[in-house]
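Per your request, structure below.
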């Protein structure tokens, strides 16, 4: 039962289904993504090229083809659905509600691997998972799902060069393959 839901203008749909090998969780849509109606549409966001270069899709995709991720056993969702220029613009209440909704979705669909696109998004979910501290890479499992945290693919995340981000995508691919 594939779920592609979009309830309001500027809110990106969830691309979720049962049996997914990977679900990527972002923090919330940026203004460009919300305006265009597609995930990871911001200029300089490396998500789409790295997804392909790491071998997670057989063909290169771009943000306008985000719905096609389901063809490759990949889902997309966000911690908070509301678009903002920065995740710092979200309220604590929005984040808390988003966390509960996200955890319910992840438990319902139980993908093989859950990837948090950015340490910041994972840090808002981590306390509910009983984790002591956030780190990059493989984490404690969430139910039947393995958990992986990678640096944000946003162009704003200059701490990690492209090559380092690609290595995290490749490590995630190895994890996905190991539980397939």
């Amino acid at each position: 039962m594939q779920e592609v839901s979009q309830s309001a203008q500027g809110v990106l749909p969830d691309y979720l289904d049962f049996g997914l090998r990977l679900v990527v969780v972002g923090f919330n849509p940026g203004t460009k993504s919300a305006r265009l109606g597609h995930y990871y549409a911001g200029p300089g966001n490396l998500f789409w090229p790295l997804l392909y270069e790491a071998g997670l899709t057989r063909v290169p995709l771009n943000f306008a083809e985000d719905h096609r991720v389901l063809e490759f056993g990949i889902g997309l969702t966000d911690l908070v659905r509301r678009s903002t220029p920065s995740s710092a613009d979200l309220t604590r209440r929005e984040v808390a509600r988003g966390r509960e909704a996200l955890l319910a979705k992840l438990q319902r669909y139980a993908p093989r691997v859950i990837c948090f696109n950015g340490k910041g998004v994972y840090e808002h979910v981590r306390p509910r998972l009983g984790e002591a501290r956030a780190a990059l890479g493989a984490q404690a499992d969430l139910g039947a799902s393995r958990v992986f945290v990678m640096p944000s693919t946003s162009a704003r995340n200059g701490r990690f060069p492209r090559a380092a981000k690609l290595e995290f995508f490749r490590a995630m691919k190895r994890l996905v393959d190991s539980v397939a």
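The helical segments are 31-36, 47-53, 92-109, 119-129, 162-178.

Regards,
D.
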